[in-house]
Specification:
Helix content: 25-40%
Bound molecules: flavin-adenine dinucleotide
CATH architecture of the largest domain: 3-Layer(bba) Sandwich
Largest sheet: 9 strands, mixed
Structural class: alpha+beta
Number of strands: 21
CATH class of the largest domain: Alpha Beta
Distance between the termini: 49 Å
Number of helices: 10
Amino acid sequence: MDCDVVVVGGGLVGLAQARALAPSGLAVTLIDSASPPPEPSPLPSLAPEEESVGGWDARVYAISPGNAALLSELGVWPSLDFSRVASVERMEVYGDDGASRIVFSAYEAGRAELAFIVEGRQLQRALESALAGQAGLDWRRPALPADLVWASDRVVLSLEGGEAIEARLVIGADGADSWVRRQADIGVSEKSYRQRAVVANFRCERPHRNTAFQWFRDDGVLALLPLPGNHVSLVWSTWDEHAAELACLGPEALAGRVEQACRGALGQLAQVTPPLAFPLRLVKVKALVAPRVALVGDAAHVIHPLAGQGVNLGFQDVRLLAGVLRERGPVADCGDYFLLRRYERARREDVALMQLATDGLARLFSARTCGVGWLRNAGLRLTNAIAPVKTLLVQHALKDGCPTVP
Ligand SMILES: Cc1cc2nc3c(=O)[nH]c(=O)nc-3n(C[C@H](O)[C@H](O)[C@H](O)COP(=O)(O)OP(=O)(O)OC[C@H]3O[C@@H](n4cnc5c(N)ncnc54)[C@H](O)[C@@H]3O)c2cc1C
């Protein structure tokens, strides 16, 4: 046997998975098709009040306090440069009538923050440096898997170029179009939202006061997430044609459109990163495990980003799978199917609930049926008024991700 576990995919979830396996003493091979970044130059540190900042990453993630704690255990969180991280202390979510809203406050929940906003590049680098000296880790990149063959007590993964790696278990962390998932013949049901998320960062005239804003509008869902130095990150999930139009606008025109759409909540905006657009879809897998295979992250579930939960769900997969493998007791074989089923049972409900909630919201707020608009705005006002419901939502959010409006 060349190793115990092969992790395929070195995105945020695959890296975290390889790191989380360290205490189990298992020998891990990590494979990623992408090359390491050419020059890992340090990111400039930012003074919080800094006015104009270069080098921002337009990909940012809302990370829950629960997952920040997990990343701390993995030795990743403390190595972040916190001058580039913002905390979310309040969330304001608006309906499409401009008046209905729901407010979540960390203060009311007795917590310091609801989430942290972190640049993707920074998180990726922190995970990579935590892995750099990990004992028992064999890291191959760029490397492309070509074939996967099952034997009774092992799998053999062949790489392009001919090398074969024998292992007890393969973890598919290779994203939404997972190669591992296809090899294991795990079926999926997939639906395109016919929407794209347009992301870009802006400097704002008025202080955001560590508030994450979200507007459910006729043309989609627009979120402004706080970043340090009075910057915000836009995530505007909108119909394909509208997204294409927004992504082609010049910096001033796009800033103007966002200002207008959020009713000038943060005053004048100035764009600091070019816009990027990501197609949105829902992917549900028929199983999270197969013989000698487990799926984590987007390989296991893809959801609409309106609640900022995708990578949070992935980190929880990592935590649960690493726990099951670490505490396998007398079961020596880490690819044992009954062991993997334990992981699947532990994750199924959480994943299904999040898919239901995000898909339901995406559909509710894109429905144009008469009366639905009134109903969703009334739902926001009602939930805002019922303290126990809000508390429940916030408690769930603190564990896994940002609050999801009901
Ligand atoms: C606009 C937008 C905003 C979002 N915001 C948030 C947020 O605020 N909070 C949140 O929790 N989530 C958010 N998400 C979701 C989040 O981006 C994803 O859930 C997360 O990136 C999934 O990470 P992953 O590592 O599973 O997959 P990926 O990031 O897709 O990584 C897959 C990795 O596998 C590698 N790979 C692929 N195929 C192969 C192969 N055949 N062999 C080897 N390697 C392979 C790739 O190179 C890549 O490194 C957002 C998503 C979008 C679109």
